[in-house]
Amino acid sequence: MLSSIERKLEKLSRVLDNLAFELSRGVPMIVEGKKDIDALRRLEITGDIILAKTAAGGLLDLLNEVEKRGKSEVILLMDFDRHGREWMKRLTSNFEEMKIKPNTVFWRKLLTLVGRDVKDVEGLSSYIITLKRKIGEDTTVEQ
Length: 143
What we know:
By secondary structure, the chain is α/β, with parallel strands linked by helices. It is built from six helices and four strands; from the N terminus they run αβαβαβαβαα. The chain has a single domain, classed as Dna Topoisomerase Vi A Subunit, Chain: A, domain 2 (3-Layer(aba) Sandwich), CATH 3.40.1360. It has helices at residues 4-24, 34-42, 59-68, 82-97, 105-114, 124-134; strands at 29-31, 49-51, 73-76, 101-103. Helix 2 (34-42) links the parallel strand 1 (29-31) and strand 2. Helix 1 packs antiparallel against helix 6 (124-134). The chain is elongated and about 45 Å long. The chain starts with a helix and ends in a 9-residue tail after the last helix. 24% of the residues are buried.
């Protein structure tokens, strides 16, 4: 019988595997900062990841950057704190106006799974390592 930690790890792995698959299909993803990308890379999630915070002209540059890619969908993966929630609302609204589907499924699933334990995307990899250590699993993902 699986412990609650093992079940949580299994669900997190499934969400992250599905996220990696969507990125492998060419769907771009927006995250807040460079440390978020580093954490995702440690979790072996690669693909077209766009930094929200490095857009020199702010929100308009970010929207234009996504529009240039010519995709009909973009994955939004902001942090899980108040600021991240505000970003999610603002970006969702803007992309809907641009007729680009904002995919918030992964963010909502991760938020449900990590709750108050993780406040940002960059904390996901260390959180997963901690869970694995608690159940005595190999933690070969590097910090």
